[in-house]
Amino acid sequence: MLDNKQVIVRLLMSIVLSGLIGLNRESTKKPAGLRTHILVSLGSTLVMLLTLYLNSMSLDGDIPYYSDRMAAQVISGVGFLGAGTILRRDSGVVTGLTTAASLWVVATIGLAVGAGFYMGAIFTTILVVIALMVFHKASKKIKTKGYHIFSLSITSLDKPGQIGKIGHVLGNYDANILSIDYKQKDDNLIKVDLEIAMKTTHNKYKLLNSITNIENIIEVSHRS
Fold it and tell me: What is the CATH number of the domain that holds 183?
């Protein structure tokens, strides 16, 4: 049976490893950030610790216990939590897939820490951080090779369908949305930050004018 020191060490390690991944998600303003990742990992670690505890108790009694059942429920349960971070914007852009995947991985890291499989948990954390930070930049370069990339910041009245209208205009100019961030400025205004990729810059200013002319748009700014 695990002693109190081992339990505390594993829970603390779970916080550290999941925190490294959560910080990356928090810094990029994703739906699930630092606290969510830590809580998922802590819960998974506790489930695995509980599994080991019940296993040790079952060895002393006549009641059999199947250790794989609780861990399996964690994996399936986190799938529902991850689904909550996946959003389909009015523009048709699906976001949150990477965050959902990171939550799932954090849950497995928590299970590994709870089981005492430290090497697997630590090395997986390192690989996840590399994938989120390094591969993110590399994938952007691959996807946008030969494209002109710039950022748009749009302030609009908070009216239904505004993001959809912006997306429609972008589609008319064959502009690809690489990322989108939506913020509520106050009760009546919203701010939409987008990263856009276009094959050519010839229609860039026509695109900006078209967005400016959308009803209820207050301000449009861009930077390369």
Answer: 3.30.70.260
Of 124, 141, 158, which residue sits at a domain end? 141
Q: Pick the more confident residue, 92 or 189.
A: 189
Residue in this structure with the two tokens 């589609």, named with its chain if needed:
171
Please tell me the distance from the alpha carbon of residue 202 to that of residue 34, in angstroms, as a whole number: 41
Q: Which of 98, 116, 141 is the last residue of a domain?
A: 141
Model-level pTM? 0.55
Q: Which amino acid is at 70?
A: M
Is pLDDT of 91 > 50?
A: no
Our count of domains for the chain comes to 2
For residue range 119-153, what is the model confidence (pLDDT) as tens digits? 989 999 998 888 877 766 655 555 555 677 888 89
Residue 65, phi then psi, degrees to nearest 5: -135, 130
Model confidence pLDDT, tens digit, residues 162-181: 888 888 888 888 888 777 77
- Give the separation between CA 74 and CA 107, rounded to whole angstroms: 7
